[in-house]
Amino acid sequence: MQFINPAREQAAGGFEQAVYEAVVESLSDLGEGLMVLENRRFSYVNQGFCEMLGYERDELMAWNSFVEIFHPEERERILANHLRRLAGEQFRTCYETAMRHRDGHRVDIDMSIALLHFGERLGVVGIIRDISDRKLAEQEIKRKNEDLEALSASLEDKVRARTAELDRANKQLVQLNKVKSDFISIVSHELRTPLTAIKSFAEILLDLEPDEDQALWQRYLSIINTESDRLSRLIGNLLDLQKIDSGSLAWHDEIVDVVGLARECVELFKAPYREQGLQLRLEVPPTALTTYAEPDRIRQVIGNLLGNALKFTTRGGATLSVRRIGGDRPADNAGFIEVRIQDTGMGIAPAELDRVFDRFYQSDMSQKRKIGGTGLGLCICKDIVEHYHGEIRAESAAGDGATFTFTLPETRKPRKRLGEVLVDMGVVSQEALSAALDRQSED
Amino acid sequence: MNEPALILAADDEPHILESLRYVADKIGCRCVLAEDGEAALALARDQRPRVAVLDVGMPGLDGFEVCRRLKADAATRDIQVVILTAYGQARDRAAAEAAGATEFIVKPFSPRALAATLRALVTPV
Lengths: 443, 125
Fold this sequence. Notes:
The complex is a heterodimer.
Chain A: H1 6-9, H2 14-29, E1 32-38, E2 41-45, H3 47-53, H4 57-62, H5 72-86, E3 94-100, E4 106-118, E5 121-130, H6 132-207, H7 214-246, E6 254-257, H8 258-275, E7 279-283, E8 290-293, H9 295-311, E9 317-325, E10 336-343, H10 350-353, H11 364-368, H12 377-387, E11 392-396, E12 402-409, H13 418-425, H14 430-442
Parallel strand pairs in A: 7-9
Antiparallel strand pairs in A: 1-2, 1-5, 3-4, 4-5, 6-8, 9-10, 10-12, 11-12
Helix pairs in contact in A: 6-7, 7-12, 8-9, 9-12
Chain B: E1 6-10, H1 14-26, E2 30-34, H2 37-47, E3 51-55, H3 63-72, E4 80-85, H4 90-99, E5 103-106, H5 111-122
Helix pairs in contact in B: 1-5, 2-3
């Protein structure tokens, strides 16, 4: 044991000196450091201490203050403890702290401190053990704990989100169930209404005296007939709706000219409009506008809208117009076909505009004016138009007519191949063309 | 000689209203017709019929509401109310009873059966 002050050396006795040296050596062997302080200076450090912190012993001995060996974050606390200890205060002698290696890195240590009285001299002996590995392990555990906590929190979040999702789905199901039960209730009501008239007048006819006025027989039979038609329309509409809803409706789509369909519909409705003293005008471009759809379904939509316009218009009339609109779609350079039915009827109240496409929605006006309807027509129109990726909307300034507009994507007719044209013209037979094409593909 | 009893029939379906008038005629009663709840209420207050046959699903005031208002007014409380409806569920029957109706008839109804019911209601006991 090499004390720098030779005077101090004399203080150590022979055997004790040997024991101390052995202890200090073993400490170094165990990788533990020993430091002895006196007046803030190192008065001794063992080899273990030097190796742990990367300094030569002589360097440390030359320092004016031992405090510099501690990590900057620890220095204030260490110095304060040191002063308290020297002042005779007794407190914890073992604690964790950190020193700074010569290369700057932090060395976490366990430190055990003992006060050393020797006559007038007062020193401190400290034994330090590098606990960097333990610290690293602790940090690793802490990090893993945090990871686990985060994972657990994220799991909890997921469970919460999933629960909310299930809750929403459940509410939707309850709502759907209510919609279904309301639907059945409304349907049965709507079916019973015409049935009531049919049943009543059938029974009344059975009870009529044979000599009763012929006109009465006619009157009651015609009511039965009218209400049977109504019932039949209602059932047809319900089936259409059900088929569209369930996706079981067969759509016999083909390239169809909407302008041509509009012409046909106007022809069909000319007479009923004329009978009511109303005008029906057609505004279409001179050329065909084609879409890919089932002609009957498009007729159904246009017919429904023309029929509605007829029902709700008492003077003036309606205009059916077809035009091409919108930016060209880049894929096939095609736009949209817009079909518009504008009438000069009573119009639709703003509050009703959003609801006219709802199932069984009957406008108050139609109720007041006894305008028959199933309340399903517009709903079916919407389903059909949307099936073809079009849009339908209603506009109206109440009292100033209604306008229903729907769009359909334009589909250009595919140009025929030369071979098909030749077959059409009778230049070659279908068989010859097929054989030629086969030979070509064999090559 | 008693004057024939007056029956008020209210329904927004013209054909059904026509069959109700036929039934009233058949049992020798006079009949006034209304196409909605407001009109039914006004006619009931004005004409004091012996019986009011009220459809439930009318625009504006429905049959239940007309019935409640008739029963709430001392002047019209004695009018016997027959509720007529195409909604035939138990809760509708309970609603008719709660509103103070005497009879509850589900559509489609039999004119013969309705005639018998109305005859019983207009015949003084």
